[in-house]
Design goal:
Helix 7 crosses helix 9. The chain folds into two domains: about 30 residues, no CATH class; about 170 residues, Carbonic anhydrase (Beta-carbonic Anhydrase, Chain A), CATH 3.40.1050. It is globular. By secondary structure, the protein is of the alpha/beta class. Strands 2-1-3-4-5 form a five-stranded mixed β-sheet. The longest helix is centred in the last third of the chain and has 22 residues. The structure holds cobalt (II) ion (CO). The site of cobalt (II) ion has 7 residues, from helix 5.
Length: about 200
Amino acid sequence: MIEQLLENNRRWAEGWSRRDPGFLPSLAREQRPDYLWIGCADSRVPANEVIDVAPGQLFVHRNVANLTPPSDLNFLAVLSFAVKVLHVKHIIVCGHHGCGGIEAALKDERHGIVDHWLAPVRATYRHHRVEIDALADEDARIDRLAEFNVVDRVQDIADTTIVRDTWKKGQKLAIHGWIYRLADGLIRDLEVTASQPEDVD
Ligand code: CO
């Protein structure tokens, strides 16, 4: 099975060199992505594929439940590099319905270390508990919490000094919140875009 992946890769690279011989060599020289994608690690939401963009267009950070903890050095390093060095113009936080991380946070079950990682999702749930618990269907509760999680993560990012200093300098940067539906592959804009400090509240 693993050899098949290498075979796939050879076919993929040959495809590019046939269709556009200069493309991969141009990527070897530099990357100039306009977008930073922050998404879930879930295998069913491959960032480049669901928005159909070629290599080089998307800087990507993925983890369980698309979280953005200000204590996470990995996330901060990605955010800082994307904004300060690559000068991305858009940050997209894309959650998804049916997210296992969100489900784990919603239920009082033990899953190990990941339960600590999911603490921000439980905080989001507490803030929106009345609305979420009013939904009779469990899948609907998970999906609604996934949406609230995206909204709160957009706020997390907008609250970082990295983003505040970028806006202060007058550099254009918009943070968007999206939700992806596994069943039909469609993304919905949650319309919580922040492109200046006043947008955050
Ligand atoms: Co997920």
